[in-house]
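Many introductory courses stop at the sequence. We go one step further.
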Amino acid sequence: MTMPQQYPFSGAGLGLRRALMSPLLSLSDDDISFMEVAPENWVNVGGRLGRQFREYTERFPFLCHGLSLSIGSPAPLDWDFLKDIKQFFSEHKVLSYSEHLSYCSDSGHLYDLLPIPFTEEAVRYVADRISQIQDFLGQRIIMESVSYYAVPEGDMSEIEFLRGVLEEADCGLLLDVNNIYVNSINHGYDAEEFLRAIPGERIAYGHVAGHFVEAEDLRVDTHGADVIDPVWTLLNKAYELFGAFPTLLERDFNFPPVAELLQEVSTIRELQDGVIEMQSLEAQAQQDESHTSTTDNSVVLTA
């Protein structure tokens, strides 16, 4: 079991979407530990929206989760975009930057995140691009393995590809348990077995979300529904394996009342607290057992 690392943020977070800007105004960090946005949606935004966004970044720890880096694309990296987001991170004191282990562009941008072929060549190519970005930004970036619906050609499995990129690039991992669950249904593998193969020391934080059931053997990762029980169970298993890492609820549309959103955020926190308490009790029991063993083996000398 890997115990929690020291993270620059902690607890249970919520993705900030424009439709939530007004409904969430009255909340504090007692309700939400941190927030996350896609930088593409906020870079160079001014006026009323820009001022409102600044109010949020002054009240909450903020992360950025990008959509258009296209790390696996054959096209050159977009250095103008990277310059913009580097400045954005500085202006808003953004704590971390995550992106998708996918691609979405070549001669133009697509409105989908496509899987990278699971090959040794792709591992080296992607890791080199990640390293360039890390050097430019002056910080480690965090990669999320994506949900996908067509299996790319390759000479390795999904988990082997993921582990290869993380090791070669020396970057962090955004662990999205909903993506693991969705992929396990769509591609017929065991979600917990995949989870156990994750390099826990690479986890920077996590995501949890809802999805759409298209068919018995097809799930679509929509972020537009409540989190289902099997995904909560998988998140709890991740905490048991790797410690109670910071985790954020993603919801992109079909927003319920704020109270219902906060209930899901509270569920994250309850699972974290439960695992932390369990691990504390286990550690105390081991300490007591060690003390008892030492006492039993002691020798009393008399004159």
